[in-house]
């Protein structure tokens, strides 16, 4: 008998869920549209067990410990067909690692293989994080899943800043920060709207998710813009000698960047407190109702799942493989740039595509199954975390390592980011989405990718990250 056929808790969950839907359905339909769910600290449907783990959760496996054969089978099947197809790339993982040790001089091959190898390992990391998230309360689970998938990005940032020599990789890091946010806002969200809209005329999402997310992103974009705007506004008046020198401008910009990084970290803590404590019941109810609308709900319940121990093992394997591939990938970036690939294209387009693969697959699958609020969480959440946590973190680590890492981005790129936030915010305003809005977001991302390929590298002296013109004059 299959393990899924032994789940006595699943029957209990189905009955409980049905009861919850019946209780919430009439009241929600009689309320004005857009009214936030209330705080229900005491629900009539109580989970079995105590603490953070919801025993009646759809993430329950019905097993304990680890069973190797079953573990490998569940991981291979993943959660959707697209993720299962990505697992075909797993043979590239040992090949990429072996080639990096055996022939590190084959720079293009090492880069290409490790670029591909990150995709299935990031997919496993996202799958294991999702399995673990289903065993937790809704909001905590989604935030934990977002954090785990962002580990790929954090590892890449830390490896890049550690391998930086004479500021050669800082432009790549800065572009990767902006590229990560743009990939989630335009590419991932656009694909969610597009594929979700193909199966229905429109999808309605809750303002509790969209308004908080877009508002936080606008504040984060403003914070990231300030150091670049400060530098660009004063670069024309800085000279090599005088009361306000170019070196002083660079020092002040770096100080402002570090102060901004600390402030953004405080904003991230407030964001966590808002989601996990003060307003957690609002988001829990929104996501519970979204889960009830899942068109693959019955299939998802019957799907074999990982145990808690197996989740930890999968996370350990994925993190190890991702970290190794990230190190080998970063080591080859200077050689790839020398072959004509622009720094900004490398950071803004190529790096985010692999590091965000797992999040994109998860979000698109949720939108396809009509879980649009979950999809929004997986699009807006990583963008917020990149802006409020990952970017400030790499600035502070660079500060500790004595690197010249700051938030003085290419002014053209940061303007693209702010405009993208405004465009996405406008699409989210009405609380509905369709395939047209999604297709437009993806097309905007393609335009940015094409433009980035032709954008000059910083060392060519044409960007705002350089010492102002005339600063080297006697």
From TrEMBL:
InterPro entries registered for this protein in UniProt: CaH_exchang, CAX-like, NaCa_Exmemb, NCX_ion-bd_dom_sf
Gene Ontology terms: cellular component: endomembrane system; fungal-type vacuole membrane
Matching Pfam families: Na_Ca_ex
GO molecular function, one term: calcium:proton antiporter activity
Domain Sodium/calcium exchanger membrane region: residue ranges: 107-275, 312-453
Membrane topology: Multi-pass membrane protein
Organism: Rasamsonia emersonii (strain ATCC 16479 / CBS 393.64 / IMI 116815)
Protein name as annotated: Vacuolar calcium ion transporter
General function of this protein: Has a role in promoting intracellular calcium ion sequestration via the exchange of calcium ions for hydrogen ions across the vacuolar membrane. Involved also in manganese ion homeostasis via its uptake into the vacuole.
Annotated TM spans: 80-102, 108-127, 139-163, 169-195, 216-235, 255-274, 306-330, 409-428, 435-455
Top-level taxon in the UniProt lineage: Eukaryota
Polar residues bias: start-end ranges: 1-31
């Amino acid at each position: 008998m299959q393990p899924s056929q032994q789940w006595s808790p699943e029957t209990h969950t189905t009955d409980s869920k049905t009861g919850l839907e019946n209780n919430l359905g009439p009241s929600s339909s009689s309320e004005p549209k857009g009214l936030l769910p209330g705080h229900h600290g005491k629900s009539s449907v109580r989970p079995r067990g105590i603490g953070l783990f919801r025993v009646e959760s759809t993430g329950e496996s019905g097993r304990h410990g680890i069973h190797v054969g079953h573990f490998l089978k569940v991981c291979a099947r993943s959660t959707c067909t697209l993720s299962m197809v990505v697992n075909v790339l797993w043979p590239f993982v040992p090949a990429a690692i072996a080639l990096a040790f055996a022939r590190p001089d084959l720079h293009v091959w090492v880069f290409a293989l490790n670029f591909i190898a990150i995709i299935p390992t990031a997919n496993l990391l996202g799958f294991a994080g999702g399995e673990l998230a289903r065993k937790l309360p809704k909001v905590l689970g989604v935030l934990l899943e977002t954090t785990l998938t962002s580990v790929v990005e954090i590892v890449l940032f830390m490896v890049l800043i550690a391998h930086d020599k004479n500021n050669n990789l800082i432009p790549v890091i800065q572009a990767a920060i902006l590229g990560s946010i743009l990939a989630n806002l335009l590419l991932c969200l656009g694909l969610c709207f597009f594929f979700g809209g193909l199966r229905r005329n429109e999808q309605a999402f809750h303002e509790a998710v969209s308004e908080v997310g877009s508002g936080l992103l606008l504040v984060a974009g403003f914070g990231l813009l300030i150091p670049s705007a400060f530098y660009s506004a004063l670069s024309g008046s800085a000279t090599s000698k005088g009361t306000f020198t170019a070196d002083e401008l660079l020092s002040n910009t770096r100080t402002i960047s570090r102060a901004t990084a600390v402030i953004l970290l405080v904003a991230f803590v407030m964001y966590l407190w808002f989601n996990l404590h003060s307003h957690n019941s609002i988001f829990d109810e929104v996501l519970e109702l979204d889960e009830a609308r899942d068109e693959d709900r019955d299939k998802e319940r019957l799907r074999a799942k990982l145990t808690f121990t197996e989740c930890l093992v999968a996370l350990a394997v994925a993190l190890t493989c991702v970290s190794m591939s990230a190190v080998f990938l970063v080591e080859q970036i200077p050689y790839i740039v020398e072959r004509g690939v622009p720094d900004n294209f490398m950071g803004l387009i190529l790096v985010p595509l692999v590091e965000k693969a797992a999040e994109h697959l998860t979000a698109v699958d949720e939108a396809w199954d009509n879980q649009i609020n979950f999809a929004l969480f997986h699009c807006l959440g990583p963008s917020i975390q990149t802006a409020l946590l990952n970017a400030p973190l790499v600035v502070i680590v660079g500060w500790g390592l004595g690197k010249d890492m700051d938030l003085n981005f290419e002014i053209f790129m940061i303007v693209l980011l702010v405009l993208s936030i405004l465009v996405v915010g406008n699409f989210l305003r009405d609380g509905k989405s369709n395939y047209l809005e999604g297709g437009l977001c993806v097309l905007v991302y393609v335009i940015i990718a094409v433009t980035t390929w032709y954008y000059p590298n910083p060392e060519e002296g044409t960007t705002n990250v350089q010492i102002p013109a005339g600063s080297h004059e006697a």
